[in-house]
Amino acid sequence: xxxxxxxxxxxxxxxxxxxxxxxxxxxxxxxxxxxxxxxxxxxxxxxxxxxxxxxxxxxxxxxxxxxxxxxxxxxxxxxxxxxxxxxxxxxxxxxxxxxxxxxxxxxxxxxxxxxxxxxxxxxxxxxxxxxxxxxxxxxxxxxxxxxxxxxxxxxxxxxxxxxxxxxxxxxxxxxxxxxxxxxxxxxxxxxxxxxxxxxxxxxxxxxxxxxxxxxxxxxxxxxxxxxxxxxxxxxxxxxxxxxxxxxxxxxxxxxxxxxxxxxxxxxxxxxxxxxxxxxxxxxxxxxxxxxxxxxxxxxxxxxxxxxxxxxxxxx
Length: 315
Description:
The chain is of the alpha+beta class. The chain contains five helices and 17 strands. The strands form three sheets. Strands 1, 2, 3, 4, 5, 6, 7, 8, 11, 12, 13, 14 and 17 form a 13-stranded mixed sheet that branches.
């Protein structure tokens, strides 16, 4: 026992010598409250995990993967029989009037409807055409566009439109761990409109008025995003994007062209990866033990300095 006492580096002061002070009590309460606040504020983060971010270069061959694209677009000036949705890409694909025809189904067939319904076009009460559903595009440069047909296929037509949503890749709910995400940039743009009661309201989406023969061109730059949850083993691959818009009257060999709406796609070779990870309990405890020790060490330094200054004042 005597040997153990000789190697003791934690000398315990005698309580007959130690003297409690108001300064020491105030610093002790400050340390306890601060450490408790830090501990409880980190409990939620520890339970929910955290998100790691990284960017890497994708090494897959472009053009092989088909990307689902969710559309919710209304053509305001044309009925469905006078407008088509066409898809074109660099592999020579050119599909005209891409949509699913609505037909009556039995109850059994209704239960087997896939979650990703092909795009469907329906006439609106205002004389327009509403496109809603999924199309598929290749992971390469290409476009999909809306074109007037029939008697409206002439330069005097207009093609005003409203975009409520365009989403690329897997559909996910809004994740607050991904800052400034732009999975549905068209659908989140704020705009104001006047209601029937004369009041001004703010809604989401893009509304573009069109003049005769005016073509609208949307240049969309896409970045693949990988969202991984290691605890559940789930992976999702949505696409974030930005876009620019221009409008013009097109001409070919000196003659004006009918108006159209183009969405030109350009995929980035980079992939943004967000991984949700869960720290171990030992890491959580070690981090907070270090915080507690550092807090008390710093406050002890202030207390010792104040004590030395007080002693020097009275000498």
